């Protein structure tokens, strides 16, 4: 399927690992010039070089700690300067640790809110005005199914993700008249380094081995397996294209049939 994305530009936060890296690579394969943003400068350099080599597209590393508003502002300014303008924003940076309410201090709550909720909001607030002026843009928020399927041992992530589900729909309604489409994606269990960390934390909470915790998570998936980052990135590329030009203001689960709420 020809997506018609060649010549577009994108920022992917959390773009050096896992789902974010797969999204950056997928967009680059479609001819999109990509800036990847993350905290680990060395890892970003390696990821950007590998993506550029694999796809023959431009991929630029932009290191920043997105919990810091000043660093986030500087990263968005640099990315815009390097790319010329930004057509696509993929908000993906944000990993909230497992934990129940009694085990989760204020610092953990505030870090999660600042990185994921405020980080997504700040990036969108900076980038959407120019998209709206050009009458074309895409904002894809990578959120997580716990926002509408909350868990007590992931209470911070559940709360932050629920906020982002609402934020996505509200932003979509505001931007729709200017042809800036905003959608959310809720990954379920996806085989990434982040998933390995979640499994380890969950195993410790439940008092069982990592293998048992992983098996328990897979048992909630109708397809009976973990997903892959590429099964997320393909949808993102489609949503960025004009083939998806009538899709906005919705949140889509990629979880192998694991979410059964209406």
Automatic annotation (TrEMBL):
It comes from the Bacteria. Pfam families: adh_short_C2. Transmembrane segments: none annotated. Coiled coil: none annotated. InterPro entries: NAD(P)-bd_dom_sf (IPR036291), SDR (IPR050259), SDR_fam (IPR002347). Belongs to the short-chain dehydrogenases/reductases (SDR) family. This is SDR family oxidoreductase. It comes from Neoroseomonas soli.
